[in-house]
């Protein structure tokens, strides 16, 4: 008997099979080679198909991050306890190589406010070794913790210092170009321009953001890291409101549209500012299972000539300590100047990591603004295996000249995450 299949049914079956294979990939390991000895299929950590000469490759992967936050005090409008459960990220990642020198990455995030959006869509040319040229939609390069993937940062959320100038790492649904590379197994650098979508001046010309980052790492391998970096970012704009605000490391404050509180460190004043520059410093040291890292960020916001407002300054720093109880070291990559994953030595017990981070942020404008906040984060991460990570953070925040509607200026939060990576 001959059975007929619709095109839609065939494609749906293919998609379901591909997804099932990728999700189940953690159960397999090793290499499968064709009779021609020119194709390698890897199923550990996603699904990857590549030619043995490395001319072509295709990889299907992704991450799922399911979060739960409970918070009170300054984290809510009325000071009472609130909670939120949500998908922080649900990203399907497609990447690979074509004709050896061309690399591509197309990532879709299905977890952002319940709708899908491009997390990245880029093509990179690597033929000008050691320089790489990337074009497309991607996060600009600014800061050590931002360069480190959300999968492998030690706390659930990145430092609050990035809230002070959120545009420095925001692709803004636009297009960009970035030149980066490694030199002498010691230096990493990048320079990029991003053209934000729908951000034109009165003449229709795009307002752009510019990012520069330089890293020197005399020691650059897992468990043996000495890292220093400097960053600069600038954006062109005719006018903006100069608003500075922060979630203070709890994402649930904006997921909760009813009672979540995202305080203003400097209020919006429409059309009073026209200059925006950001500087950043970064440093890290790792020895075996221990690591320490710190970053400093300063944003200078220039008032318009003749404005009744004054120039604004927002600044902050953090210090983070992490220690892996089971002895594994955090990975590190000089190409990108970033920390990488912890690989559990014992796949049954997994790896256990303790972390503490201190954040200090503030905003100033002579005669108008003088706000400050301190956030302590204590956390534990269980890397059950190479695919599953379970995290829990406890946060304590205290602020000056900032309060919710109930005049609360401090608060506590508990954040938890279940992560699956393939």
TrEMBL record:
Top-level taxon: Bacteria
Signal sequence region: 1-29
Keyword terms: Signal
Organism annotation: Pseudomonas aestuarii
Protein name, entry field: Porin
Keyword Signal: yes
SUPFAM superfamilies, A to Z: Porins
Taxonomic path: Bacteria, Pseudomonadati, Pseudomonadota, Gammaproteobacteria, Pseudomonadales
């Amino acid at each position: 008997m001959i059975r007929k299949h619709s095109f839609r049914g065939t494609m749906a079956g293919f998609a379901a099979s591909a997804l099932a294979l990728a999700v189940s990939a953690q159960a397999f390991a090793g290499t499968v080679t064709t009779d021609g000895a020119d194709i390698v299929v890897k199923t550990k950590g996603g699904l990857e198909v590549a030619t043995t000469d490395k001319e072509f490759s295709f990889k299907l992967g992704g991450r799922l991050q399911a979060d739960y936050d409970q918070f009170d005090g300054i984290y809510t409008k009325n000071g009472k306890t609130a909670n939120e459960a949500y998908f922080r990220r649900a990203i399907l990642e497609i990447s690979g190589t074509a004709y050896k020198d061309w690399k591509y990455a197309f990532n879709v995030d299905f977890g952002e406010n319940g709708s899908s959006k491009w997390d990245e869509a880029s093509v990179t040319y690597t033929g000008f070794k050691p320089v790489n040229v990337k074009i497309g939609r991607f996060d600009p390069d600014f800061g050590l913790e931002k360069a480190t993937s959300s999968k492998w940062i030690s706390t659930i959320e990145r430092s609050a210092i990035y809230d002070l100038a959120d545009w420095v790492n925001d692709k803004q649904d636009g297009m960009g170009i970035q030149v980066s590379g490694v030199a002498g197994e010691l230096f990493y650098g990048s320079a990029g321009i991003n053209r934000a979508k729908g951000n034109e001046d009165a003449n229709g010309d795009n307002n752009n953001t510019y990012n520069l980052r330089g890293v020197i790492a005399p020691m650059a391998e897992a468990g043996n890291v000495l890292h220093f970096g400097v960053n600069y970012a600038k954006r062109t704009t005719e006018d903006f409101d100069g608003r500075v605000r922060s979630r203070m490391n709890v994402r649930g404050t904006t997921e909760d549209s009813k009672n979540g509180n995202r305080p203003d460190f400097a209020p919006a004043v429409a059309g009073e500012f026209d200059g925006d520059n950001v500087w950043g410093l970064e440093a890290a040291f790792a020895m075996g299972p221990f690591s320490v890292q710190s970053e400093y960020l300063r944003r200078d916001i220039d008032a318009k000539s003749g404005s009744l407002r004054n120039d604004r300054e927002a600044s902050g720093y953090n210090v983070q300590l992490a220690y892996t109880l089971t002895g594994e070291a955090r990975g590190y990559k000089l190409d990108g100047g970033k920390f990488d994953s912890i690989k559990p030595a014992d796949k049954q017990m997994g790896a256990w990591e303790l972390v503490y981070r201190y954040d200090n942020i503030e905003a100033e404008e002579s005669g108008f603004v003088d706000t400050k906040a301190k956030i302590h984060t204590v956390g534990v991460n269980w890397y059950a295996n190479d695919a599953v990570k379970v995290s829990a953070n406890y946060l304590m925040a205290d602020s000056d000249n900032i309060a919710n509607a109930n005049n609360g200026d401090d608060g506590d939060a508990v954040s938890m995450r279940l992560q699956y990576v393939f």
